Amino acid sequence: ERGGYKHFMLKEIHEQPDVVEATLRGRVDLVNGDVHATEIGVSPELAREIRRVYITACGTSHHAGIAGRYWIEQLARVPTVVELASEVRYRDPIFYPDDLVIAISQSGETADTIAALKAAKAQGAKVLALCNVVDSAIPRASDGALYTHAGPEIGVASTKCFTTQLAALLMLAVYLGRRRGTLDEGRARETLQALWEIPNQMRDVLGDADYVHAIAKKMTHAKDVLFLGRGLGFPIALEGALKLKEISYAHAEGYAAGEMKHGPIALIDETLPVVVICPRDAHFDKTVSNLEEVRAREGQVIAIATKGDEQILEKSQYQVWLPKVRDEVLPLLTVLPLQLIAYYVAHLKGNDVDQPRNLAKTVTVE
Ligand code: M6R
Questions:
Q1: Is 121 a catalytic residue?
Q2: Is residue 355 within 8 Å of residue 8, measured between CB atoms?
Q3: Is the CB of 84 under 6 A from ligand 1?
Q4: Where is the SIS domain (predicted)?
Q5: pLDDT for 37
Q6: E strand intervals along the chain
């Protein structure tokens, strides 16, 4: 049942190219640079009428939501907020009838997310479920559903559901942008084409995982690990830290790279591994200057970077190389080495990777 893999988590990491492909198939229209309306769970009229997107979720699904926000604001120009579902209802939240609330959940049964979406519905907002389990509680309680096609996820640490959520959110952002006239056909086509090519690039990155194992070995005894990223690298930094915490029990923090100087820089010394997500994207120069600040304080930098980047090779102690892709699709690649690092560190420590202590796969209590 684990298909030759030692753990479900490793199997699910390696399934990502196929399940992302399955999530895109039949939905993406590369000829017209568009996404088919029937598959997206939001009617063209609703796509035009909404004035705000309000994303709510927990854990890994919340991290996907942060990437979703960047895409929706950039491509569809709709103001978007992302809120932890466990906070929404305790805050007397405000929803409007022209809000599109997106409840993201792998299981579709997370109690906090259900409570948040009910609060939104009670105030007349429209709710879209982004979910992996057909007909679970969250899509049942929503006005529409956009399904990820990740198949059953058994490992407690979410991996393949995360990347399929990313793929779905980017498709949704393109769909909204096209309906609202904020995204021209050319850019839409290029973005979708880049997304379409991602499964093969994921295969390349995952096929070459030995050096990630070597990096993980060096990190096995670290008590704290810092993950830094900017823009679309920020939610990936959060996700990398969550993965490591969950299964390796090391303390890890994900931070917006620019926020480092506002506090966490005090933690840096020669014992601290710092994973810096610094591919050649629009934020590269700024992120590299954060990387230099870490090096200046003797921190050990593990760079997640673009193949052939001499500057990074010179400035960091360890590197994971990724192919050059369009900025929009980067998170689907940058997260892969972080999942593998968490997996290998946990495995090297002898932890139960699929069933980490104190955690349940589906959290049905608030
Ligand atoms: O099923 P959901 O997506 O609603 O679950 C949300 C979180 O409980 C979940 O992502 C959790 O954080 C995972 N264990 C992360 O790996």
A1: no
A2: no
A3: no
A4: 42-182, 215-356
A5: 84
A6: 28-29, 34-35, 52-57, 80-84, 99-105, 126-131, 144-147, 224-229, 251-256, 273-277, 300-306, 318-322
**Nearest alpha-carbon partner for 215 in 302, 276, 295, 279:** 302
| Among the listed residues 105, 336, 325, the one whose alpha carbon sits nearest the alpha carbon of residue 203 | 336
Q: What's the 113 CA to ligand 1 centre distance in angstroms?
A: 10
Model pLDDT for residues 87-130, shown as the tens digit of each residue: 998 899 999 999 999 999 999 999 999 999 999 999 999 999 99
From the list 208, 203, 241, the residue with the least C-alpha distance to 14 is: 203
The C-alpha atoms of residue 314 and residue 296 are separated, in whole angstroms, by: 13
Quick: pLDDT tens for 30-67.
999 999 988 899 999 999 999 999 999 999 999 999 99
Half-sphere exposure in the Cβ direction for 12 (13 Å, CA):
23
Ligand 1: atom nearest CA of 157 is 16
Nearest-atom index, ligand 1, CA of 110: 4
Residue 57 phi, psi dihedral angles, 5° rounding: -175, 180
**Residue 83 has which token pair?**
């809120």
Q: Give the separation between CA 64 and CA 58, rounded to whole angstroms.
A: 10
52 burial type by CB count under 10 A (0-12 exposed, 13-18 middle, 19+ buried)? middle
| C-beta separation of 278 from 321 below 8 A | no
* Burial class for 184, CB neighbours closer than 10 Å (0-12, 13-18, 19+): exposed
The rounded distance, in Å, linking the Cα atoms of 356 and 217 is 20
Region of 304 please: left (phi>0), alpha (psi -120 to 50) or beta.
beta
Q: Report how far Cα 103 is from the mean position of its chain's Cα atoms.
A: 15
State the first-to-last Cα distance of the chain, in angstroms, to the nearest integer. 32
Question: CA-based Rg of the chain, rounded to a whole angstrom?
Answer: 20
Q: Which residues contact 97 (CB under 8 A, 6 or more apart)?
A: 123, 124, 125, 126
Q: pLDDT class for 356, splitting at 50, 70, 90?
A: confident
Give backbone dihedrals phi and psi of 58, rounded to 5 degrees, phi first. Answer: -125, 155
